[in-house]
Amino acid sequence: MSTKAIHLELVGDLTSDTFIAAFRRFVARRGRCAQIWSDQGRNFVGANKQLVADWTEAKLQFEGSIAETLAKDGTKWHFIPAYSPHMGGLWEAGVKAMKHHLKRIMTHNMTYEEMSTLLCQIEACLNSRPLTMIDDTDKDRLQPLTPGHFLVGETPITVPTPNLRDVPMSHLSRWQHQQRLLTDFWHRWQQEYLTTLQQRSKWHHKVKELDLGHIVLIRSDNLPPGKWMMGRIVEKHPGADGVTRVYSVKSGDSVVQRSFNKLCYLPIDTEC
């Protein structure tokens, strides 16, 4: 709820048993789930009843400290009011970020294994977005904090793959086509996400200029999935009217000039 990290799990249908199986996989990989928020779908209500019965039966088989431990390991389920999907907008927005672009890049049917692999890679991309800086005292090394840090302790990565965007689809194998879908998704979603960080009211309000030493995201169309270009403002180049529209940004060992519309604030920025 606070980090907006996303976990994507592929299921074959919308029954309660299938959801419980997905929930067991989630707990086995992510750890104990103390709280669940969801709408009042029949599969969720049925799964809640089944899980409550399973935990109750497990506690009856033991006494003393073991029973107390099992009670603490249980999951509390919270249901939003019926016919009120807007009250689940926080998690619906994360799922929409995946569905909106995925259905636009899908060109053929995929097997369960192919779809599951693609969703895991998309999950890594979504959880790799920088939130703020871990420690910006090191002038040469930028370490962003991402949602992935709260899941796996580090920024999620995707295994490198050749750039296949210029290769005709008919020349690709099924595996290459799957990786092409990942690249297409990344370019669509990254551009939309960076655009949301640049929403500014044109002409109505004066936007605060970036300060020297400020950490920014740099818009780039050639980055592989899960990679972000970041830099530190080292010089300002004001125009004749005194407004700065061009900045010198240090990224790695090089310093490049970028216009203001190519630079994005971090989502959580204590300096703004």
TrEMBL record:
Segments forming a coiled coil: none
Encoding gene (name): LOC113504312
PANTHER family referenced in this protein's UniProt entry, alphabetically: PHD-TYPE DOMAIN-CONTAINING PROTEIN (PTHR47331)
Gene Ontology terms describing biological process: DNA integration
Residues of the Integrase catalytic domain: 1-155
PROSITE patterns (UniProt xref): INTEGRASE
Pfam families: DUF5641
SUPFAM superfamilies the record matches: Ribonuclease H-like
A GO molecular-function descriptor: nucleic acid binding
Protein name in the entry: Uncharacterized protein LOC113504312
